[in-house]
Write a structure and sequence with these properties.
By secondary structure, this protein is of the alpha/beta class. 15% of the residues lie in helices and 36% in strands. The strands form 3 sheets. A 4-stranded mixed β-sheet has the order 1-4-3-2, covered by helices on one side. Strands 5-9-8 form a 3-stranded mixed β-sheet. A two-stranded antiparallel ribbon has the order 6-7. A hairpin with a 5-residue loop joins strand 8 and strand 9. The longest helix is centred in the first third of the chain and has 11 residues. It is globular, with a radius of gyration of 16 Å.
Length: 143
Amino acid sequence: MNWTLEVVPVPVSDLDRAKEFYGGRLGFKVDLDQEVAPGVRVIQITPPGSRCSLSLVQGMPPFPGARQMEPGTLHGLQLCVTDIDAARATLAAAGVEISPVVHVGASGWEEGRGQPWNSFLTFSDPDGNGWVVQEAPSELSER
């Protein structure tokens, strides 16, 4: 049996603002935007080339035994790209505040590109959820 990661919930305070950020500014595909039950709205979006979607939800009660995430508390999820400089330029053109490209060096995080798998940048959504972008040496389908 396969266990595939296909949906990650992203806690946001304003669904329309989050939809504009992820769908409009970042160019993620909006797969679904509907009220699935009275007072429960779900927006599911997918980054280009990804098999895993993000779920932006309003009004959904927490799953039994799970804690409710508050907007801005999701940090460290990584998106992978094959060209970190192009990704940075795309984010900058969309008006997203982004970090410089960094890599792990002898003294910790150092500015500039590193070797394969060791070039990163970070950005946050309007609620403060923090994302990491990592450069991969090839597309996932080729690894």
